[in-house]
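Q: What would this chain look like folded?
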Amino acid sequence: MSSTTAHLVKPPKSLLRQVGRAIADFRMIGDGDRILLGVSGGKDSLSLLHVLAHLRTYAPVRFELAALTVDPEVPGFDPQPLKDYYTRLGVPWHYEQQPLMEQAKTHMDGDSFCAYCSRMKRGIMYRLCREHGYNVLALGQHLDDLAESLMMSLFHGGQLRTMKAHYRNQEGDLRVIRPLAYCRERQTADFAAHAGLPVVPDSCPACFTMPSQRAYMKTLLAREEREHQGLFANMLHAMRPIMTEGELPEPGWPSERPRPDSEQAALGEGDARAGANDEVIEHAHVDQRQGGAQPLGDA
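A: My prediction, written as structure tokens:
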């Protein structure tokens, strides 16, 4: 890969197939959708960027795709390789800065840092979707994340809950999708390494100094999987009913909503402004109906 050009690496068929199945099962993408993908710089979100970009080339529906990176201004986090990579790929992108660690010292109000950071990032992503005319926010959590969230909810909340695969936000103006819901973390790790994706190492001091409930659950599940190889398939089967809230949202650009014009939809660097506190993220380290728009089918 040269320093001036880059190409979209085709993900392995197993990854494309599982993402395609999740998109079809949960009716995530329809004709005309404008999708903003949150890219942290980790292996999962970068893998999803390549998967969705590849699906666009042959999907039976038309959809737009752009990337957003939120810089929390923690020591050691350098987003420049991501910005260069988006440009070389020809993927429209947005970039936002906000000193989340400094703000957390005075605004956390009982939250863990990870919960505060996640909530603030979500507010920024919602705001950027609204400002630039996106109707779908795509996130990169995978099956391992969903299983860990379920265990955290059972152990610490006494509830059967996990992250949703496809839902509307509280205000009802945006849809949130998780196309990697059927994929394992090792799949994105293998693809990122094989494709040489520009993964940005996690440099958040809080993640290193405060061991999380999620890290404990990850270790617990890894230990159990060594004895029970079908563990995650069984957990996915059990979680399916709680991965949605009621009826699935209708995919596709809303017919009553005007398409953004070229000025409103202009893509590039965003301002470094604070995000609204729209909704608490479902996960923290402490988160086929008939008719309607045609959804993207199985890959």
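DSSP finds ten helices and six strands in the chain.
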